[in-house]
Each structure stands twice: as structure tokens, then as C-alpha cells.
Amino acid sequence: MGARRELDGADADSSARFRAAVERARSATPRAEVLVSDVPAPQRIAPFAAALGADITTDEGEIATGRLVLLHDPGGNDSWDGSWRCVTFVRAEVDPEMVRDPLLSAVAWSWLRDAWQARRLQAVAPSGTVTAVLSEGFGGIEADGLTAQVEVRASWTLAAEDPAADPIPDVRSHVEAWGDLLCSTAGLPPVPAGVVPLPPRSTRGRGT
């Protein structure tokens, strides 16, 4: 997870703040089932951008995958209503019967809201979509039967709790909430209250 670019001169402080935010993101401890890695960040979206990828696998293979992009525009962005923005997608295999439930989209979006609420996070100007897909094989792949996926795409602005004391928002907790969303989408049972998750397996690179 690295900065897309660094600014010079008067913007050195912004560069340093973003590097600190990236390190906070890397220090997150999502559930042990979530395998996190650094992935390339998209270009030309914001002056600073970094990204994490994550997967959940079982003996049957990958059951969920996702990506989280941290964006920072030191000058602020009117469409964000702030200067720090997260953009994510999460996709998971689900039971085909779930896709037929007309409430699935609302329920999937509530998983993200619940993740923010559980960690007492403020998500400003949230937006997103939930897509459910049901596929049925024919011909040579007819034996595959029905498969189904649900995908959550979302973005939200992160607000610093005390900008005067610390202008960087609680990026670590937002990454952990994203991990919670990934687990909920994958159908994993919630961690009981008071249970501390083990440190996650990680393949994070340290290049910038």
C-alpha cells in the first residue's frame, strides 16, 4: 500500500500525513480469516492514493475478495465533503437462494453500516451499490448448476476526530470495519463480544 505520488516543497506536510495514514492502515488487525495484501492504487483519482486487497479462502477455495482504496486530497474535495475518502468493493459467493431474496441489497448495505457503528466510526457522505448475480450453467458446464455472488461497492469520507490535535482520521479502524464487511458478506459468523481476533495473515509489501 503506497502513495501514488509525493508532492514537494509546501506540500511536504501533506505527503508526510499521507504516509502516516498508510502506516495506520497497515497496522489494522482484521479478523484472522482475512488475508490482506498491498495492491496497486488507481491513478489520477486524487493527489494521494493507496490500496489494500483482501481475500477469504476455505478448503473449497476463495469465497470472498475485496479491495479498499484510501484517497487524500489535501485541498479538500467538494464531492467528498472532506479530504480523506475510502472506496471499496467486496464480492462473495453466496447461496443462490439469497439472491432471490428482495431484501438482500438492503441487508448487504446494512452490513457496512453495522461495521461502522460497531467501531463507532463516523462515515461522511456514504454512497454505494449492491449487486446480486445468479448464474446457471448450460451445455458443457451444465453440471456446475446455479452459482450466485453478491457485490458491495461503496465510498465514504473519513473525518478526523480532532483535526487540531491530529488531522489524520482513524484509518486503522476503517480498515478493520472493511474487514468486518468482507466477513459478513462471506457469511462468516460474527466474533463474540470481548474476543480479540488473532493478528491477520498478511502478504503486505512495503514498497511505495
Structure in a nutshell:
This protein is of the alpha+beta class and 208 residues long.
Features:
single chain, 208 residues, alpha+beta, 4 helices, elongated, disordered N terminus
Provide a descriptive summary of the structure in words.
The protein has 208 residues and is an alpha+beta fold. Helix content is 24%, strand content 35%. It is built from four helices and six strands, in the order H-E-E-E-E-H-H-E-E-H. It has helices at residues 12-26, 96-99, 104-118, 171-185, and strands spanning 35-39, 48-58, 61-77, 82-94, 123-136, 146-158. The protein is elongated and about 60 Å long.
> What is the approximate shape?
elongated
| Derived structural class | alpha+beta
Helix count? 4
Tell me the helix content.
Answer: 10-25%
| Strand content range | 35-45%
Described by strand count, sense and barrel closure, the largest sheet is: 6 strands, antiparallel
Radius of gyration: 18 Å
